[in-house]
């Protein structure tokens, strides 16, 4: 692996658009069962908020040394204010649509002795007028960026994803899309789509051999008019499909502690590397290294430029 291209990354400009959420963690100790119901009682000792979803992708771009702009929807509430504050602290330029009728998507996790015991979600689909505001911001920012990342968590911010892709193509800006669901026609015309193994199976069905996967992946890539299709396969590594054929990298040998947000880290690394013009195969190598590092961390985390540079030596 070549040395980390820090100077080039510092000039990269990545526009991240998608479903923004706040990941809230309550850490505590469990030493008894509730007398009211057979559930553990967690005595909360520490609380922590982290950027999630598209915001975590932008945070990862900034941690790698790139310039990240974040577009998305939040509520006019405490969680939305928290996202703005955390984005600023992470070095992310956030241009957010705040909707008083739309609560910020919030995932609250309760952990006892480093084990997740409960997750509570707060979310609501955005209204058309809110999406109009997001579209206007996108039109203003698009031309000032090298790459667009579409981070889809099926919360509604990317309901008009086809329009966003069309605008980026017209402007000559590459689009990397992290898909959700089985309707991949929504992402037609993107430059790269990055399904994980389960998402790929939703799209093309289960495969039994590598040749079968290759055939189905290349057919999907052609049908969707994609330049590249990258399937992230957890412990099996990553496989890239382009017009030139198939390339694969094995997973890095790291202890897996928590896979939360690992796809965000991979997507951010791909975007930063593509923004400076690296070929897809080389970008995949860096993304694979970043993914191997981040799964060794607890919760929604990032990989820094220093960590990735250290991995390359």
Automatic annotation (TrEMBL):
InterPro entries: Carboh/pur_kinase_PfkB_CS, PfkB_dom, RfaE_dom_I, Ribokinase-like. It comes from the Bacteria. The keyword Kinase applies. Keywords: Kinase, Transferase. One of its GO terms (cellular component) is cytosol. GO terms for molecular function: heptose 7-phosphate kinase activity; heptose-1-phosphate adenylyltransferase activity; phosphotransferase activity, alcohol group as acceptor. Residues 13-301 form the Carbohydrate kinase PfkB domain. This is D-glycero-beta-D-manno-heptose-7-phosphate kinase. It comes from Bordetella genomosp. 2.
């Amino acid at each position: 692996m070549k040395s980390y291209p820090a100077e080039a990354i510092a000039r990269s400009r990545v526009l991240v658009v998608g479903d923004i959420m706040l990941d809230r963690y309550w850490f505590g100790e469990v030493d008894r069962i509730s007398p009211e119901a057979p559930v553990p009682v967690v005595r909360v000792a520490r609380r922590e908020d982290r950027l999630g979803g598209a915001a975590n992708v932008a945070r990862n771009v900034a941690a790698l040394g790139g310039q990240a702009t974040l577009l998305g929807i939040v509520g006019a509430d405490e969680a939305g204010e928290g996202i703005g504050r955390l984005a600023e602290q992470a070095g992310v330029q956030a241009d957010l649509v705040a909707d008083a009728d739309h609560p910020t998507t919030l995932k609250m996790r309760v952990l006892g002795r480093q084990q997740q015991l409960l997750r509570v979600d707060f979310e609501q689909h955005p209204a058309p007028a809110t999406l109009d505001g997001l579209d206007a911001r996108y039109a203003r920012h698009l031309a000032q960026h090298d790459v667009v990342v579409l981070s889809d968590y099926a919360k509604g911010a990317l309901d008009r994803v086809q329009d966003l892709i069309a605008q980026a193509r017209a402007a000559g800006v590459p689009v990397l899309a992290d898909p959700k669901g089985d309707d991949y026609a929504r992402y037609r015309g993107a430059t790269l789509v990055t399904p994980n193994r389960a998402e790929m199976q939703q799209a093309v069905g289960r495969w039994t051999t590598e040749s079968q996967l290759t055939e189905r992946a290349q057919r999907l890539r052609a049908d969707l008019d994609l330049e590249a299709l990258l399937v992230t396969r957890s412990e099996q590594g990553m496989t890239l499909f382009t017009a030139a054929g198939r390339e694969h990298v094995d997973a890095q040998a790291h202890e897996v502690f928590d896979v939360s947000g690992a796809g965000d880290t991979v997507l951010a690394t791909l975007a930063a590397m593509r923004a400076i013009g690296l070929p897809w195969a080389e970008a995949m190598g860096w993304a694979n290294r970043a993914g191997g590092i981040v799964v060794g961390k607890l919760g929604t985390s990032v990989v820094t430029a220093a960590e990735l540079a250290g991995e390359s030596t």
